[in-house]
Structures are given as C-alpha cells and as structure tokens.
Amino acid sequence: MRDWIADIMDELDKKILAELQSNCRITYQELSRRYGVSANAIRRRVLNLEETGEISGYAVTLSVGMTGSSQLFGFLTGDGSRDEVEMIDEIGSHPNIIAAAAYSNGIYAFVGNYDTTQEMHDLSSYLRRIKGVLNAEIHPTIIPIGQGIELTTLHLRILKVLIEQPRLPVVEIAEKSGLTARRVRRLLEQLEESGAIHFNALIELGADTSIPFIALIRWDERATTYEHIIKWLKEKYPLASWENFISAMEPVLFSLFAGENLTQVNEMTREIRRHPHVVSVITTISTHHKFFTNYRQSKLREMIENV
C-alpha cells in the first residue's frame, strides 16, 4: 500500500504537527535530535505551518485531573436550513463546548466538558433547542485524567506568562516572571511530568490540501478492546490518524483523520471495515471547524488572575 503523505505537507511536517499537538513546548533542538534535521530547518517548517494555517495557535489548559471535569463527544443532525459557520458559532457559544465542526450530510460534531450530570443535561438541552437541529447524540468519553497537583505561586507566575505565549523560551519566561531561568526550567519540568497542565498546538487539519474526516468505528467488544483498535489505527496510519474519542457508553470509537484526497478517505474506510474485529464504519467529511475557550482554560485564567 502507498505511503499516506500529502503533496504539500510532507511526512516530517506531519510528525512535527503531532509532536506540537502533544506538547507545544518541545524545542526546535529536541525535534532536530529526534528527526535528524537542523534546528533552523525545524524552525522554518514550524513558521511555515503557522503562516499557512495548519497551526492556528497554541493553548495552555488544566488537565481533567485538575478540575474534576469529564468530557463528552457528540453529533447534531441538522435540517440543512442553517449556514454552517453560523451554526458552529452558535454551538460554540455554550461555555461547555471546546470545539465544533460541520461535516457532510448536515452533521455537526462537538467536544465538550462538564462537571456534573446536570451540566451535561443542560448542554444537551441547549443543543437540541438550536434552530435547525433535528437530533442530538451525546457520548460521555473515556479520557486520560492526568494528575492533580497543587499549583504554587511560582507555578502560577510562569503560567501567567505562558497562557498568552505558550511557546515562549525559558529565558524570556524568566525575564517576564522575575524568576531565574534555572527555576523556570525546574517548574516547567514539574508541570509537564505531572500532566497537570497541557501545552497544545491547535491544529487546522483542513488548512492545506488534506481532507479532515471522522470515522465512526463500532467494534466487537467480545473480541477486542478499544486500546487494541486505537493502537492498530496509529500503526496503520501514523500520519493520517490524529485523535480518538472513546464512548464510555458503548463500543464506539470516533477517530479523527486527515486524508490526502477522497480516494484515500475511501481506501482507509474500506481497510478499517475489513479489520476482523470491526463491526461497522461510517465516515463523514469535515467542511468547517473551530476551537473555543473552554472551562479548563477559563479555570486556569481565574487561578492566575491575582498573581
């Protein structure tokens, strides 16, 4: 089978995007060491990804373990009467929504956070009441919790700087926070190793010639687990597979991919369907998506306001 490498964004670009999505504070030097390319070449590629829109920005967010919140993933079925961009903005106007996207056939997908079942109910009710919505399907999801640590005043001092500029070099963080570079490095190591704070690039998968799509994968839970399905997807499509949302209610996996073209999307769908433990696959293609300031980002801002 051919390699899944887009014409404009090559294999190294996709690997860099994946690294920055996992931890946007990774240095050019570390990426240089991992991939055998000079740090200047890595820097030029990152700048190009920012300029062309593949990276729309960077975010600093509290982990789920720091807030006690849960995550959900869902679909809305629209009647086709609304403009997609307008609809996405209305979905995202709810404070519990993290991201939303318009997909083919009048489908809208969204990711949200909630603290209580009442919040989940209120969000569900809000979404169903949106004009043009015919049906809402919501799945609480399984996500890594991350550790909950006590953020000290020193942690918050550097986070106050980073929340505006997540990739700022250590020396500049030290200057702005009034701490030594050595102390800043130690505090950052504590935050990253604990998993209490996430430093992520915001990836726009459809910004180049790629086609973002979601594969709704239903597997046979008597034969395998979602961990094995996700591992197989990442090994099979290391450059096309981006994120997975696992339903906590039923054996359903919502996998986000970026395909090179429609032919590749169709080939991947057929290949996934042929997996011996996959029961069914339904693919929908994204036409527009948007990130929103979410609860865990807002909570972090509240914590650093008085620092």
Please describe what this structure looks like:
- By secondary structure, the chain is an alpha+beta fold.
- It is 40% helix and 28% strand.
- The protein is built from 12 helices and 10 strands.
- The chain has helices spanning 11-22, 28-35, 39-51, 64-67, 84-92, 117-129, 153-162, 170-177, 181-194, 226-236, 262-273, 295-304; strands spanning 55-62, 70-78, 97-103, 107-114, 133-142, 197-203, 211-219, 241-247, 252-259, 278-291.
- It has an 8-stranded antiparallel beta barrel with strand order 2-4-3-10-7-9-8-5, surrounded by 4 helices. Strands 1-6 form a two-stranded antiparallel ribbon.
- The radius of gyration is 20 Å and the shape is globular.
- Residues 1-8 have low confidence and may be disordered.
Measure the end-to-end span: 55 Å
Task: Name the shape in a single word.
Answer: globular
Largest sheet: 8 strands, antiparallel, barrel
Strand content: 25-35%
The mean pLDDT is: 90
Main sheet: strand order: 2-4-3-10-7-9-8-5
Helix fraction?
40-55%
The rounded Rg comes to 20 Å
The CATH H-level homologous superfamily of one domain: Ribosomal protein S6/Translation elongation factor EF1B
What sequence of helices (H) and strands (E) makes up the elements?
HHHEHEHEEHEHHHEEHEEHEH
